[in-house]
Predict the structure.
Amino acid sequence: GAVVSQHPSWVICKSGTSVKIECRSLDFQATTMFWYRQFPKQSLMLMATSNEGSKATYEQGVEKDKFLINHASLTLSTLTVTSAHPEDSSFYICSAARLAGGYNEQFFGPGTRLTVL
Amino acid sequence: QKEVEQDPGPLSVPEGAIVSLNCTYSNSAFQYFMWYRQYSRKGPELLMYTYSSGNKEDGRFTAQVDKSSKYISLFIRDSQPSDSATYLCALSLIKAAGNKLTFGGGTRVLVKP
């Protein structure tokens, strides 16, 4: 099967600091990775689409200078929350996409819970 | 109006019952339909994928798509307590790997022993 990992699984930081979250596809190459945010009891909200070697495409309303995305290789994408504030506390989930069996299949990571104090 | 509507639940059923979940959508351009299961504090995992209208069965799970009504369903037979989770429908316009998914809000399901 296709496995996507995220690191760290949870992080607590002080307001004003930056936090980096890694997303790795462990057994396949993903040209496209996606970053989502999920608040309690709500669905996934797409933040940005990340393509290897190019700039990420951000969804409307997502601050690109606050949520820095780097997709340096076919197996690694990173999300950096810069100058984090309590309202950035959330569950961040990445997915890695591959074309399998003729359809767009996204494999999700286990998520990273960010708490900003 | 949201692109994809899904009843948030919670849907509570006794063990062994059939769980019936559904989503409606407004954009007839959606071509690919998926159901994901998400346990609390975990990432979603793909359960079923369908392309055309009709039924698709996989073990205890049956997915139905009615493109004319813009309505998709997921049925879980012989439900187990381990099926307690949030179920998300996800729709895609095209099959390209880079195409983003549009998610429903998710339905919380609780299967009671």
Summary: Chain A has a mean pLDDT of 91.
